[in-house]
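The methods section describes the discrete structure representation at length, but only in general terms. Since the whole study asks how a given chain folds, the encoding of that fold should be made plain. An entry of this sort, consisting of the sequence and the corresponding backbone structure tokens, reads as follows:

. . .
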Amino acid sequence: MAKLYFHYSTMNAGKSTVLLQASHNYRERGMETYLLTARFDDRAGQGRIASRIGIGADADTFDGDSDLFAKIETRKEQGDFACVFLDEAQFLTKDQVWQLARAVDDLKVPVMCYGLRVDFRGELFPGSAALLALADEMREVRTICHCGKKATMVVRRDADGKAARDGAQVQIGGNETYVSLCRKHWRDEVGDS
């Protein structure tokens, strides 16, 4: 039975690694997968999902105007596949999450989404909020704060290394920009003590 899954975490928890491993497991058993990632996140190259540990795979891309139901339906017409894997799910729109839900329900294909739950301000991304509301199953990918507690928040560092308190919700970056922290240390960093 096909389901819509949301695997969420903070930055640097290994979400892309888990996605790539799961896709590899399908392919190793002779089942094709369909990979999608956000078009504007080109840190690993356009249309590429990559992990900090050095593994990667080519993927189709989406942006805010993409009809994901149509993309999945078109890809199915080109050849059957066992599962959709979507990276950077926080960048989905609410409508796109509904399109993924329709693909699960009507095309009978499992869709596994991987992304951030909250931004550097502690606020939900629109795609993550919609996935939290609509996903059949949710799984947390865990990482740790420097203190050893589970990290649930992320700070964005400015050019001076200080925690940013405002700014655009979306800014592409990696370890040089973002740090995952437990809630207490996030509060300390942003000055909410």
Remarks:
- Residues 121 and 151 are 14 Å apart (CA to CA).
